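Let us begin with a simple case.
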Amino acid sequence: MANNLVYIVMDSCRFDSYQAASTPNMSQIGAVEQRYSYASWTSPSHYTLLMGLLPHSSPRGVFASEVYKQEFTRWVDRLGIPDLSFKNFVPYLSLPKVLQELGYKTTARVSMPVLNQFTTINTHFDDYRLMPNHNDFAGIIDDINFPDDDPRFYFLNLGETHYPYMLDGSSMPRISGVHGVFNAMDDFMLAEADTKAGEFFDSREMKRLHDQQVSCVEYVDGLVAKLLDKCPSNTHIVITADHGELFGEGGYFGHGPIMHEKCFEVPFLEGACP
């Protein structure tokens, strides 16, 4: 039987935030690697991830085309399905499409309004939902189940590690229907504009925010224990981030229109459910 797949994206989590955190539960899945995202912002990065291309290791002395081909063939080991290759992903270049054709039930739970269900990123998902709270990994886990019939693919975008790195769900935007989605997007854009218009964070505030992200990683790790309890042994788990984050390095804060290595460095780990 094909392996279940749980694919977790900790939004904005940069590599050294993961390194600084205590992660006993995620460490059971596999050793963390430093990898690099293909993009520095949520939407384009998630489109790439859902092509089937995971964050890369920036290998030297090889043709880039070979790196892509090798990455697609790695799905053979992850899914336990022989003979998967690049040709399985053509022409759609869509991981959920490939999995649907293999008999998987495809489910996505996302936290960022820019990934809402009205965008094309929800294509080839049987069940796609924007969570009503910015940081509700606990609620996402409650919704996960593994019936005995078809294999499951869960794609999970987590907001806990995204700015403002706060764990109080009551302080996050609540989203209801199409107007709620766009209102929440406006709130995020206005908050960013207010930050730019005001005083730039000083070094003390930058450190406080970075420390908060580390704490959020530890919070996510605590919930991973509950997730692992629900996963059957034939479940492959991938945990990574869509991009990194800047906390004052080079005069930058945040992510997006920034060309800095910390904006691309992400943690990556994978393995079978322990």
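The second case is a distinct protein. As before, the sequence precedes its structure tokens.
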Amino acid sequence: MGGKKKISKKNPEAAKGEVKVEEKKKAKPAAPRKEEQLEPGMRGIVRIAGKDIKGGVKLMKGLLRVRGVSHTTSKIFANIISEELGITPNEKVGKLSDEQIEKVDKILTSIHTRNVPAYLLNRRKDPDTGKDVHVIMNDLAFTQRQDIEREKKLYTWKGYRHSYGKKVRGQRTRNTGRKGMALGVMRKTILAAAQAAKAPSGKPGAPAAGAPAAGAAPAAKEAKK
């Protein structure tokens, strides 16, 4: 049987060895990947579109950190940036200058003005402008909140589900998506509250609602006689 070896009191060296092995495992820091290692003259962190990106990351991979850029769009955006700036899509972010970073920010915020297919944009037929645009970072979060509030005001089915905190896209709710206490706990609290409401709220020493009065029992005995 393969089990843990028992360490006797006579041989404490084995226990010390195990502790040393655990300490070594904990002390090992996570080594950076070869792809993300910094070269001399590179920046450690670069801020693109309001997001901090490690300097050793390639441009195509670094764009994935930006909210609103997916795996498919990152390749297309990296190709557009490489054409306009004269660099390769695999250029490391830490090698970019301040001017190049500003140009990258402008391209990302106005990517819908380039030759990008409309089906790749994340906001097609905007309700306010009617145009196909691509929104990133804080603008994306703001437009999402505005859309939800609009649905709530119109009281559409989606707005109704949003206002009550339910799932919106037709998911099942029998087993998942529950919030708050468990069902059994809620029943216990409801029953306890109902019993507390039924309990008498008179002065101390007063008889309960269903209890007979003090002189009722002797009077009943005399009536029987």
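The chain has a mean pLDDT of 80. Residues 205 and 214 are 12 Å apart (CA to CA).
Keep these points in mind for the review questions at the end of the chapter.
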